[in-house]
Amino acid sequence: MRRPWRFAAEASALLIAAVVAFPLYWMVLSAFRPAGEIESDTPRPWTLAPSLDSFRRVFGQQEFGRYFLNSLLVAGVVVVASALIAFLAATAVTRFRFRFRTTLLIMFLVAQMVPVEALTIPLFFLMRDLGQLNTLGSLILPHIAFSLPFAIWMLRGFVKAVPEALEEAAYLDGASRSRFLWQVLFPLVFPGLVATSVFSFISTWNDFLFAKSFLISDTSQSTLPMALLVFYNPDDPDWGGVMAASTVMTIPVLVFFVLVQRRLVSGLGGAVKD
Amino acid sequence: MTVASRTPAGRAAPRPRPAATPRRTGRAGTPWIYLAPALVVLGGLLVYPVYQLGLISFLEYTQAQVSGGQPTSFRGLGNYAELFGDPEFWRVLLATVLFAAACVVSTLAVGCALAVLLTRVRAVPRLVLMLAALGAWATPAVTGSTVWLLLFDPDFGPVNRVLGLGDHSWTYGRYSAFALVLLEVVWCSFPFVMVTVYAGIRAVPAEVLEAAALDGASQWRIWRSVLAPMLRPILVVVTVQSVIWDFKVFTQIYVMTNGGGIAGQNLVLNVYAYQKAFASSQYGLGSAIGVVMLLILLAVTLGYLRLLRRQGEEL
């Protein structure tokens, strides 16, 4: 490509990056603004006196640390459980030929389309009957179920990409089926598992509807999205508190993303290439 | 399609085999053992609730039945008749479809354009844009919603200052509120499209593009006649995913328009069902709305499956 064009492309890429990152910048900035500066008629894009007041308010006013751990626990359990279950299922549908295999695959695809939000009502009654209302289990169980179809569908490509000759070789060397599964296949498919876990982590970490519907009376079981909205009173929001809580809530996801960033790009490429 | 999955070994697996290869025994049962955890979880927490949803949608199911101990009574299609007779339902349905369509088109346009842009720039600008997009992607929906509200806040937001709009309220008008939510939705969902399409473009062999360029094809022509057909499977995947995600937007609408906007002007089906069920305790009616959503998305899925089949893809 000619020089001026590439220069223009790079300039616009940087400009767009600035626009895309601006909301996040403003969030962190507002979180560190001293009291009074947020509620100013002439917002400046910087602050001269950063303060931790908003963060202190967030962590002091309610059991924010506890909600944070609750969220982390729910997301962690869902990520690990759904990754393991999906890995087994993906192996079954790619490494074996059996009756109803295609039917199952189509069912996984259809299951992926089910609007989970529409199931809030029956799940509410199911959780009530299981005695899980107001517990973290009421968030963990449905989220495992809803992460599975997409995870299985995505992992399929990764499992398929492992040559069958490798499997034969492992057996010839005397490996048992489970040894092949966990010591050969699992490490090879791991990048794919990371890419899929991004989706299950995010959907669980972000979950607002289930938390709002299932954790009705026991606030000690609350998760971050609910805690955040305590500061957000639509008529008179405590913007400093909301932004500080938002910052705290966004950071773990950002860290997670940066950690898996490279695997994510190659993972998505691998998943859609098959 | 990989060749590996079509090898004779894979094909012949269900056939009874001589005992000479003991490691193969039990092969017919093994996939079901591997599948068991997934099937149990999905059966209990997905299939059963779907069945329940359908069932409740035919019942008179309100607060009186849930906690008042009154017997549930079968209403037949009563809930559906009530729903379809309500002009508000049709208004919400239309708004949902149009809003989702606008979100999908904008997300795909922005995502694809930026994916192409990524291939045109050197490593540093690419990394910067990629990181910014990952940041937007990583932002939880609740957080994103509140941040965008602050950005467009009539009193303290920077956007109104920069645009000189005074204390114009974005959430007051129906269309400007939808537009604001749309901006947030596009902001947090274009990165998935961008990253996926970019990964797809990178997988296209460079020779193909060079050959097209040598033949004198313009950039637009290369995109339309070379890249788009090669990327079609990926484009189908991201389109279908976007349709599904945007059709069932809940958090953004709920938080940004405070539960559906003034007098419910910004309701979409998902929020509407939630309000009916949990705010006014009409669980039967809420379930009927859920069934309608389910059927619409099922239709999208079937269309997707037909597309896959026409492309000759093996499942």
Automatic annotation (TrEMBL), chain A:
A biological process from GO:
transmembrane transport
Sequence intervals crossing the membrane: 7-28, 67-92, 104-127, 139-159, 180-202, 239-260
PROSITE patterns associated with the record:
ABC_TM1
Q: How does it sit in the membrane?
A: Multi-pass membrane protein
Tell me which CDD domains the record gives: TM_PBP2
Q: Which Pfam families match?
A: BPD_transp_1 (PF00528)
* Coiled coil start-end: none
Q: Which InterPro entries match?
A: BP-dep_ABC_trans_perm, MetI-like, MetI-like_sf
Report the family membership. Answer: Belongs to the binding-protein-dependent transport system permease family.
Quote the protein name from its UniProt record. Sugar ABC transporter permease
Organism from which the protein derives: Streptomyces griseoviridis
UniProtKB/TrEMBL annotation, chain B:
Report the InterPro entries cross-referenced here.
Answer: MetI-like (IPR000515), MetI-like_sf (IPR035906), UgpAE/MalFG_permease (IPR050809)
Reply yes or no: does the keyword Protein transport apply. no
In residue numbers, the region (Disordered) covers 1-27
**Compartment annotation:** Cell membrane
User: Which keywords label this protein?
Assistant: Cell membrane, Membrane, Transmembrane, Transmembrane helix, Transport
Q: Give the way it sits in the membrane.
A: Multi-pass membrane protein
Residue stretches making up the ABC transmembrane type-1 domain: 93-304
Supply the CDD domains for this chain.
Answer: TM_PBP2 (cd06261)
Q: Does the keyword Cell membrane apply?
A: yes
Q: Where are the transmembrane segments?
A: 32-51, 92-118, 127-152, 172-201, 222-244, 283-305
Give the Pfam families listed for this entry: BPD_transp_1 (PF00528)
Family statement: Belongs to the binding-protein-dependent transport system permease family.
Q: Under what name is this protein listed?
A: N,N'-diacetylchitobiose transport system permease protein
The species is Streptomyces griseoviridis
